[in-house]
Automatic annotation (TrEMBL):
Keyword NADP: yes
Residues where NADP(+) binds: 130-134, 222, 246
Domain SDH C-terminal: 246-273
Pathway: Metabolic intermediate biosynthesis; chorismate biosynthesis; chorismate from D-erythrose 4-phosphate and phosphoenolpyruvate: step 4/7
Gene this protein is translated from: aroE
Active site as annotated: 70 (proton acceptor)
Catalytic activity: shikimate + NADP(+) = 3-dehydroshikimate + NADPH + H(+)
Family: Belongs to the shikimate dehydrogenase family.
UniProt function note: Involved in the biosynthesis of the chorismate, which leads to the biosynthesis of aromatic amino acids. Catalyzes the reversible NADPH linked reduction of 3-dehydroshikimate (DHSA) to yield shikimate (SA).
The protein's name in its UniProt record: Shikimate dehydrogenase (NADP(+))
Organism (species): Glaciecola petra
Keywords: Amino-acid biosynthesis, Aromatic amino acid biosynthesis, NADP, Oxidoreductase
Length: 279
């Protein structure tokens, strides 16, 4: 590392699959920034130790945080942006001298990617599968985009209820808890299903009713892989033809993180196309 080289990283577990170093290298090239961006594996209970270790290095400007550390990062940072407070999760750390600010760019990344795929969120009924940091990070942006109704499904109903209650503080009655019986009683089906779990990384499916696919919704999996995820494959088997993985969200949320670190907003289209061509 040169004396002038800036450092950033992405924390995760697992982390081998991350494309963030490639994305940020391509962003840095756009502005002739000398950036070293690396992957940082952390043990499940050792995020704080890993973050302390990384930010003890000179020239560190910030970090991205992926599953399962978005709640750990929330506790580690010195201060929170309004978006991170609202989301209740941190995916971006910005170093400001001795202060470490936590922000959340997941929601912006998701909404922008859906727009890039021609999905207008205004008035949609959306099912979010999962109630962890990834789900918490995107719900505020989905609300702001004008969605009609948000339903949350999680294996642990208590976590789903807690997330729904928190979400409804920002807009009354926009969020509900989904279970199999609730769908039978619903007046309308879902227009968009978002898998906010990490299960697709392991080739596993959330245990959710097949009825969610009956309205032929748009299906979005936050996980990205070289081929369609198991969740996307299942949706396709039920006739859902508009299935999107999380690669575009990754690029868009990374662009917002890059802006928070450097004050320059990169062009994302060419970077996304590069990644698609090199899956």
């Amino acid at each position: 590392m040169s004396a002038s080289q800036t450092m950033a990283c992405v924390f995760g577990n697992p982390i081998e699959q991350s494309k963030s170093p490639i994305i940020h290298a391509l962003f840095a090239e756009q502005f002739d920034i000398d950036l070293q961006y690396v992957k940082r594996f952390a043990e499940a209970d050792a995020f704080a130790f890993s973050a302390d270790e990384f930010f003890s290095l000179p020239n560190t400007i910030g970090a991205n945080v992926t599953m399962p550390f978005k709640h750990d990062a929330l506790k580690w940072v010195s201060s929170l942006s309004s978006q991170a407070k609202r989301a209740g999760a941190v995916n971006t750390i910005i170093r400001k001298g001795s202060i470490f600010e936590g922000d959340n760019t997941d929601g912006v990344g998701l909404v922008n990617d859906l727009k890039d795929h021609g999905v207008d969120l205004q008035g949609l009924n959306i099912l979010v599968v999962g109630a962890g940091g990834a789900a918490k990070g995107v719900l505020p942006a989905l609300i702001d985009a004008g969605t009609n109704q948000l339903s949350v499904y999680n294996r642990s109903a208590d976590k789903a209820i807690a997330l729904v209650n928190e979400t409804n503080h920002y807009k009354d009655n926009i969020a509900t808890v989904y279970d199999d019986a609730a769908y039978d009683e619903a007046k309308e089906g879902f227009d968009l299903i978002i898998n906010a779990t990490s299960l697709s990384l392991y080739g596993k499916l959330p245990q959710i009713s097949d009825l969610v696919f009956s309205n032929k919704p748009v299906v979005y999996d936050m996980v990205y892989q070289p081929s369609p995820t198991v969740f996307m494959q299942k949706a396709n088997s039920f006739g859902c033809t508009n299935n999107i993985d999380g690669l575009g969200m990754l690029v868009n949320q990374a662009a917002q993180s890059f802006y928070l670190w450097f004050g320059h907003y990169p062009e994302v289209g060419k970077v996304h196309q590069y990644l698609l061509a090199n899956k």
